[in-house]
Design a protein that fits this description.
By secondary structure, this protein is α/β, with parallel strands linked by helices. It contains 16 helices and 13 strands. The protein has helices at residues 16-19, 22-27, 62-70, 86-97, 114-127, 150-155, 167-178, 203-207, 217-235, 251-255, 265-270, 283-288, 299-302, 305-318, 343-350, 360-368, and strands at 4-9, 31-36, 56-58, 77-82, 101-106, 138-141, 161-163, 192-195, 239-242, 259-261, 274-277, 293-297, 322-324. The longest helix is centred in the middle third of the chain and has 19 residues, at 217-235.
Length: 371
């Protein structure tokens, strides 16, 4: 009988089948199903409009979750959790109580934040009473040095922690293996790459009950257009915009008639003369390809969660300056804000020595095959 893998996450995205290794599991003989549990404990904003190629169900109550487990051949099913929150922790215990086995995957990016420590301490307080008895078989972690994995380090024995690397490094590694270069002929001329972050409509803001990062969108558009115009003037190169995977409809209002590309951000970074972003996970590509990097914010971002908890830690890690685009950038020498990132320090932060040359999900598959 074929073994079955049930992937449990708050939600899935259009590329989850590839990112989470679901296609890889299928190719290796597993049945695969996704349970989307974000509505059990919070009003999670689902990507319900996506057309997803694998069986997936939205589970809204604990009773429904319990019934779904009972309908499985528990001895022949492996539950894999992507991400974590307190509602997932309860369900992990339920899986173990009913005789099942599960693994956790923490695909975090390089982040070292105050809120991460606070969140993990709260989670640990809720777990400590039972997690010693309901440990995962394996816990696959993005890196040894990431505070967001602290929770997993406490919850499982050291021998069960499998240290791998963060998602940005995994994409970079895969890109190198495939020698993937999808750039169009017209992109062979030198260019600057701007990484869009969908500040207006990012679902993380809603799902985490955050205040909007950019309350005054019109002011942001004015500042951004002035900033990009000045970049092209001072550096003498055109800007290509790499769109966020789930970008807002107003992207053309922000970037005007500049070329906007979708997908293969890693490839565009590899061939760029300069990379501009605020705090995208894709900024890791610039570090790995040792590209000059320019970070920006504005007064609105500096008053938000985004600046304190996402941008500042990365800027400190890279030793990068940040230009405030709310100021009159025409009076600023923007070349002074360009950083050559601390490559060695970053690589040590986002990878583990023993698995630097293996794709994340290839390693996961190797261990899952032993269960």
């Amino acid at each position: 009988m074929k073994k079955k893998i049930v992937c449990i996450a708050n939600d899935c995205w259009k590329d989850s089948d590839e990112k989470w290794g679901l296609n890889l599991f299928k190719q290796n003989g597993y049945k695969v199903e996704i349970w989307r549990v974000g509505k059990i404990a919070q009003n999670f904003s689902f990507f319900e409009e996506i057309s997803f190629p694998l069986p997936n169900r939205i589970i809204k109550t604990w009773k429904e979750f319990y019934g779904c487990i009972l309908r499985q051949n528990i001895k022949n099913t492996i539950f894999i959790y992507y991400g974590r929150d307190i509602s997932m922790n309860y369900s992990m215990a339920l899986v173990k109580i009913l005789g099942g086995k599960y693994c956790t995957i923490d695909f975090t990016s390089a982040n070292n934040t105050r809120s991460a420590i606070i969140i993990e301490k709260k989670v640990l307080q809720t777990k400590r009473h039972w997690m010693d008895y309901f440990m995962p078989t394996y816990s696959f972690l993005g890196s040894k040095h990431n505070l967001l994995t602290m929770n997993s380090k406490f919850q499982v024995e050291n021998g069960n922690n499998i240290y791998l690397h963060t998602y940005d490094y995994d994409v970079y590694l895969k890109h190198k293996m495939e020698k993937k270069n999808l750039l169009l002929e017209k992109n062979k001329q030198p260019y600057i790459l701007f990484i869009d972050q969908n500040f207006f409509d990012h679902k993380d803001q809603k799902n985490a009950n955050m205040k909007k990062w950019i309350p005054d969108e019109k002011q942001f558009v004015v500042e951004m257009q002035r900033f990009l115009d000045e970049i092209e003037k001072q550096f003498g190169l055109p800007i290509i915009v790499s769109a966020h995977p789930v970008t807002c409809k107003t992207i053309y209002e922000i970037y005007g008639d500049r070329q906007i590309v979708y997908g293969n951000t890693c490839g565009y970074v590899e061939n760029a003369e300069l990379v501009i972003c605020s705090s995208s996970g894709a900024m890791g590509f610039a570090v790995m390809y040792k590209k000059p990097l320019l970070l920006y914010n504005n007064y609105q971002l500096k008053r938000s969660f985004f600046y304190l908890e996402l941008q500042m830690p990365k800027a400190r890690l890279l030793g990068a300056k940040i230009v405030n685009i709310s100021k009159n950038v025409k009076n600023i020498n923007l070349k002074e804000f360009v950083t050559k990132p601390a490559y060695e320090q970053y690589i040590e932060y986002v990878t583990s020595d023993e698995n630097q040359t293996q794709l994340f999900m290839d390693v996961v598959l190797k261990y899952v095959n032993t269960l």
